[in-house]
Specification:
The complex is a heterodimer of chains A (about 100) and B (about 220). Chain A is built from 3 helices and 3 strands. Chain A has about 100 residues and is α+β, with helices and mostly antiparallel strands. Chain A has a domain of about 40 residues: Orthogonal Bundle (Histone, subunit A). In chain A, α1 crosses α2. Chain A is flat and about 55 Å long. Chain B is mainly β. Chain B has one domain. Chain B has a 7-stranded antiparallel sheet. Chain B has a two-stranded antiparallel sheet with strand order 4-5. Classes of the chains: A alpha+beta (about 100), B mainly beta (about 220). At the A-B interface, β1 and β3 of A face β2, α1 and β9 of B.
């Protein structure tokens, strides 16, 4: 699957990554090749085969004990946020 | 020609499970903390974090399933429910779609006149709660508090077996009593630990097909039902 220049720009915007003019065709090429590589999987016949949730046989979901293990690191975590007020993350108003 | 209509009601109840920590992370679930002090990197949806399922949430779901005579899935699947909203940091909610942990149970309700009715419970599944949005007092902004994000929920879905608001209330009260008796939920509707959505449609009496369904979300008291 070949990605257009425009698609690469859109993806970079969504990921909040800055890509220069020179880098664009390189990324377009690399990403397209990766997608083509993955597309080969569609050629494999998987009719009637149970999806494999884990490579090891008989492996079950590891479960966590019900214990509080996290303490308050709010100030550190909110260091990344663009706008914070009174401990809340502020976003553009989403309702009327 | 006089057409008699009947109302068809199904209820979806979300019960917050009374675990100490969240369903996929070790953050506390206690109500009423200052905003965002109980939201860790897993709850905030940072890249590369690994959700790990809370053993007690599973046990509570199973306990509920056994109490309603349901089938407990030996193998059940979690899925991503993708949608965009500020109180959903990952952009998806981890929930269960195919193969929920609990399926095909029943609950007995008693109506005002003493009559009994059996209401089917189609399924009950585990999922995570989203955060809270505050829209007042912040000008052109909404404020997001992610303390609630990741709290375990048991979503309990009834068959569309109810034919009146009274039956719906009786069912909701029965489930409310049951989850408190089983000590899996505190049933505190004011704090949002027990929430109900109603699915309502109408059809001609005597018909078996269903009419167009309308969903009413977030009924936070028995009275509103």
């Amino acid at each position: 699957m070949t990605l257009t220049r425009r698609e690469v720009e859109d993806i970079a915007h969504l990921a909040r990554l800055q890509i220069t003019e020179q880098e664009l065709p390189v990324y377009a090429g690399n990403l397209s090749r990766i997608l083509e590589f993955v597309e080969q999987l569609s050629a494999a016949g998987t009719e009637g085969i149970e999806p494999m949730a884990h490579p090891l046989p008989n492996q079950v979901q590891p479960l966590r004990d019900d214990a509080v293990t996290e303490t308050d690191h709010r100030d550190r975590y909110q260091g990344n946020a663009p706008v914070v007020e009174a401990g809340l993350y502020l976003v553009p108003k989403v309702i009327e | 020609m006089n057409i008699e209509w009947e109302i068809v009601i199904g209820l979806e109840i979300h019960a917050q499970l009374a675990t100490r920590s969240k369903i996929f992370s070790g953050s506390a679930t206690a109500y009423g903390a200052p905003p965002n002090v109980q939201a860790n990197l897993v709850d905030l949806g940072y890249p590369g974090v690994l959700p790990v399922l809370n053993r007690e949430a599973v046990r509570m779901a199973v306990r509920f399933g056994l109490a309603i005579g349901a089938t407990i899935a030996r193998r059940s699947i979690f899925a991503r429910k993708n949608y965009f909203y500020p109180d959903l940091p990952k952009g998806y909610q981890i929930s269960q779609y195919e193969r929920p942990i609990v399926e095909d149970g029943t609950v007995d309700i008693v109506l005002d006149d003493g009559a009994h009715k059996t209401i089917g419970v189609t399924r009950a599944h585990l999922e995570e709660d989203a955060g809270k949005s505050l829209h007042e007092g912040l000008g052109a902004h909404s404020g997001i508090d992610l303390n609630r994000a990741g709290t375990p929920l048991l979503e309990i879905v009834s068959e569309p077996d109810m034919r009146s608001a009274r039956e719906a209330i009786a069912y909701m009260k029965k489930i409310h009593t049951l989850v408190r008796y089983l000590e899996i939920c505190d049933g505190n509707m004011q704090e949002g630990s027990f929430r109900c959505d109603a699915n309502v449609s109408v059809r001609h009496k005597g018909r078996h097909e269903f009419g167009t369904r309308c969903e009413i979300k977030n009924l936070n008291s028995f009275r509103f039902v």
